[in-house]
Design a protein that fits this description.
alpha/beta, globular
């Protein structure tokens, strides 16, 4: 079934972005999936994003190549150790070294450009302000500011052809609530990848902040985590 209702969905291949994609699909959007190869150490996530795009049935899955490794400053893009075995208090205490400088601003800017080209007024992103690692670009005030900027910065916005909306359906949901929502929408979480520091075969470590938050979410949701850990 074709639809004129289009959405650009940022997809990391992870639990949150996959749930967001399922939500957008369920709301009747034709999905334009956008992923990034940005020099991340967990590049295996791109294979997950491709499998998810195929499974959900997107109109197009676009992978943008960036080299944030040249900028560095993050454990995901630089020679900095990924924190392991931290408790929930430590994870939420401050902005961790896994924060990639300006990453969501960069990603959303590309999504904005693509949305304008395909004449879409909707961008979906899986940011979350509850069970997350304290990233500044996951906060509601950041999303509101970017949305305002988006409508000032585009030809479509200035000419009144469309009003860009940054959709954040997971913003105020716990990880357990996100998982339950995904199960309700038949999301296959075995396809997703969350680990920041997988082994060379792409198997999740089970000890980084992202793995810990994922395991906590599945436990609280009463659902078995299909991820294999080493």
């Amino acid at each position: 079934m074709t639809t004129d209702k289009k959405a650009v969905v940022l997809s990391s291949g992870g639990l949150d972005s996959t749930t967001v994609m399922a939500i957008a699909k369920n709301e009747g959007y034709a999905i334009y999936s956008l992923s990034f190869s940005y020099g991340q150490r967990h590049k295996i996530e791109l294979k997950a994003a491709k499998k998810i795009a195929d499974k959900i049935g997107v109109e197009k899955h676009l992978v943008i190549n960036l080299d944030l490794h040249k900028i560095g400053g993050s454990a995901l893009t630089d020679s900095i150790d990924v924190p392991k075995n931290r408790d929930e208090e430590a994870i939420c205490a401050d902005i961790p070294v896994t924060y990639v400088p300006a990453r969501n601003t960069i990603f959303l800017s590309y999504a904005l450009a693509w949305a304008e080209v395909i004449k879409s007024s909707d961008i979906f992103i899986g940011v979350n302000a509850i069970d997350y690692s304290g990233y500044p670009d996951c906060r509601p005030e950041y999303i509101e500011a970017f949305e305002k900027m988006a409508n000032l910065a585009t030809k479509a916005g200035v000419e009144g052809l469309t009003r860009i909306k940054i959709n954040t359906p997971l913003l105020n949901m716990s990880k357990a609530q996100i998982i339950k929502k995904g199960i309700e929408l038949d999301v296959d979480y075995s396809l997703t990848h969350s680990c920041y520091d997988p082994n060379p075969e792409g198997v999740a470590c089970g000890r980084c902040d992202s793995c810990i938050l994922r395991q906590k979410g599945f436990k609280e949701a009463g659902v078995k985590d299909p991820t294999k850990y080493f």
